[in-house]
Known about the structure:
- This protein has 149 residues and is an all-alpha fold.
- The protein has helices at residues 9-44, 46-49, 53-100, 107-135, 137-148.
- α4 crosses α5 (137-148).
- The longest helix has 48 residues, at 53-100.
- The two termini are 46 Å apart.
- The mean pLDDT is 86.
Amino acid sequence: MSNRVRHGAEDEATAYRLQVLGAREGAIKGTLVAGTLVALAHWRFPLVRRQTLAGKAFLTMWGTIFGMVTHADHYLLEWEEQHRRASEKWRNQARAEMAGQGLIPTETSMRQWKAKKDAELEAQRLAASQNLAATSPVLQELGKVQQEN
């Protein structure tokens, strides 16, 4: 058994959900486009008119599968690009700050830097929400009701 930490399990789940969403959208669009084209070809071309229903359904399924594959891939590639940009953004910030301190930015030290920054941001958000709760009479009443229950 390996003692290595598995990173990105939530990224895998997100990528899977996006691919399923894209595949559904692509299947619908592909089926509509291919079905329309097969119907128009049925009225226009005698060769298509002589095809059985199974043959026409097969042609329609080509469009369905093509739509599923292309849309799922599009969604995944778009998400990967956004994920890569966000990752590069914090990595560049970590490199710049660590280089300013005279440290060599290794992968481990950059992850530690990111964890520290994330904790600072979370503390700031928590402090801001507490300040909002202290100044808002509605939120104060809501807090009292929640404490009573």
